[in-house]
Design brief:
single chain; about 120 residues; flat
């Protein structure tokens, strides 16, 4: 962690893992990526982003890799970026959609408040 301007929030260095593509991932990919993730966190990484942009033909191997990475993160920040619609659908199907860092259905994103217009009637 490094600090920015005095009095501001500290800056967090974001580290990046890359999922191999086009997919699906092989079982040995999970072990290699989990070992790399552990080294990043052991080295003081504040947040890790897993880039899935190369995965254009996802399969259960990719889901397994992401599930194992989530377990290896042990509650520390891990997000998936660049996921194609097919991978997003698979992650949603198996309950790992939170890795994408998006708000769940019926749940507003954090920090967002609904605006109230002065002419709105009270409910």
């Amino acid at each position: 962690m490094t600090s920015g301007v005095p009095g501001s929030h500290p800056l967090v260095e974001i580290h990046r893992l890359v999922l191999p593509g086009p997919g699906p991932a092989a079982p040995q990919d999970a072990a290699l990526l989990c070992a790399r993730l552990a080294r990043l966190y052991d080295g003081g990484a504040g947040a890790v982003v897993c880039d899935a942009a190369a995965v254009t033909a996802p399969g259960l191997g990719d889901v397994q890799v992401l599930a194992r990475l989530r377990l290896a993160a042990r509650g520390r920040p891990l997000r998936v970026t660049g996921a194609a619609p097919a991978l997003r659908a698979l992650l949603d199907l198996v309950g790992l959609v939170e890795l994408l860092g998006e708000a769940e259905q019926r749940e507003p994103p954090r920090g967002v408040q609904e605006g109230v217009e002065p002419d709105d009637p009270a409910v």
